[in-house]
Request: fold
Amino acid sequence: AAITPRSKIIIINTPHNPVGKVFTRAELEKIAAVAEEFNLLVMSDEVEHVRIATLPGMWDRTVTVGSAGKAFAATGWRIGWLIGPKSIIQPTLAATTRIVFCSNSPLQEAVATGLEQAQERNFFTIQRDEYAARRKILTDAFDRLGMKYTNPEGSYFVLLDISNVDFPDDYPFPESVLGRGRDFRACWFIALEIGVSSIPVSEVS
Reply:
């Protein structure tokens, strides 16, 4: 029912932001089968996992999106790249000249150097292990508090169930916070009273 005659493209985000879901090879194969059956393109925003473009028959219909923000934890750099066949990449180059007026050349060079040196420096393995250690500190604290959360298969976001987080009804939230979702108010309260910053999921676009 999700595929109609107007459908043109399937967009995949793995690991999903912010849920942390990582599509398995079997799941990607099912998505690939749908894309081939209905002649759809696939845009895959992914980092260091099974690439759908490597599955049989998928290279010619897939554009893979890479990001320095995800790969190197350099979110503010806003440097990304596309990998795909010329038939897909060429039109995106034409669009880019009208969308991105000026890119940051020094940061592009820095990212290129990072990609060149990542393997020899074992960067991604070290990064993954460090993230796992940090995540365990956080989830161990949630376990001690008896709080429910999702354990992400990828990415560094842990989604916390705040349904049992109580804060005073008369807590002095600023006007900019009042009227927003309960998760936003909870994040504000936790930041000010406990000193831990978090991101309200209702605010994630």
About this structure: The CA atoms of residues 187 and 193 lie 10 Å apart. The chain has six helices and four strands. The two ends are 24 Å apart (CA to CA).
